[in-house]
Amino acid sequence: MWRAAVVVRALRGGGAGAPRAASGAAAAQLRQRLESELEDIRGAGTWKSERVIASRQGPHLRLAGGGGGIINFCANNYLGLSSHPEVIRAAVEALEKFGAGLSSVRFICGTQSIHKDLEKKIARFHQREDAILYASCFDANAGIFEALLTPEDAVLSDELNHASIIDGIRLCKANKYRYKHMDMQDLEAKLQEAQKHRLRLVATDGAFSMDGDIAPLREICQLAQKYDALVFIDECHATGFLGPNGRGTDELLGVMDKVTIVNSTLGKALGGAAGGYTTGPKPLIDLLRQRSRPYLFSNSLPPAVVGCASKALDLLMESNAIAKSMAAKTQRFRSKMTAAGFTISGKDHPICPVMLGDARLASVMAEDMLNRGIYVIGFSYPVVPKGKARIRVQISAVHSDEDIDRCVEAFTEVGRKHGALP
Ligand code: PLP
Hints:
This is 2-amino-3-ketobutyrate coenzyme A ligase, mitochondrial. The protein is an alpha/beta fold.
């Protein structure tokens, strides 16, 4: 009797542990609407699929269900610290000493000595007064504008800023101005318009992740000074490797004392685990601890994650050798690809977009690169403007010269095959 019931359930696909579909007209209507929306995404050719990695993050990967030996050129692992043995060891030690997690937000019972130490270290690294940790930089960006700006104030944002800045600005009640990408004339015009407000904050990515271009921070800071504005930068694609000591875009362009607020991530060059932060004037950080909603209402960073980031910062503060090695690899890739006939957008940044124009070309070339063991990703509209499709290559300090050369060779072969090169 019991066995018969199990067999019937198995045949219906409803065995123990099988997903249960919610019943009722509303659930059915929702399912239909979602399926039609998903079909639209597939139809528009913008479906994002996820490749499953069966190894650690690093320059060489094994993909699930496939072979190993894939050379990875699409992680934000700029300094190769995501699987650095000392970073992993620091995570294990923090896990053992401080446990798996805090089961709490920071202000209830979620602050450990390692959280305070990491905040001090981040502030020291950026030469700022204080720092505050978040679960991600997305959260840091979501939390800062609402806490800082009121309807009396204004925020001026580069039109190509990261989605998290755009969302953070949406959440605040300040007056919003969007200036054309890195266009200083337009920023100046918007700053003039914004003179009527109490406070002006210019917000920009330090380095833009789709183009590998770097914000003209010197000019932005000059305009900010002229029109009495503050400057905020998102340094996710700069912290740890831009500038002579890897402090970021503000160090690279000599304006560390002119940029007021820096937001960045622990999830890219700084060990790659997760987490984000704001660093800047102490009263601002104090205010964020009181008012910033993603900080107040979300769990503390897990100790292992704190351990990774803390060790990554130690390694960078000891020496700039890793950052220098990444810069040399970047230079090798950019110059060899340019000599081969490709156009690489941006300048001196490890984000190296190989500009192709046509969306289909970018997609088939990326697929063919993977067939040759090189993992790169094609980007097309709506992620980048129409007609500006590209394959984005990201260089890491742990790529060998041979890895870089193999990538250039594969691009050359695949480019010739698909007509991107003569
Ligand atoms: N800002 C920029 C410019 C980014 O590229 C990203 C990540 O993609 C974020 C913010 C969000 O960072 P996190 O992954 O820490 O949430």
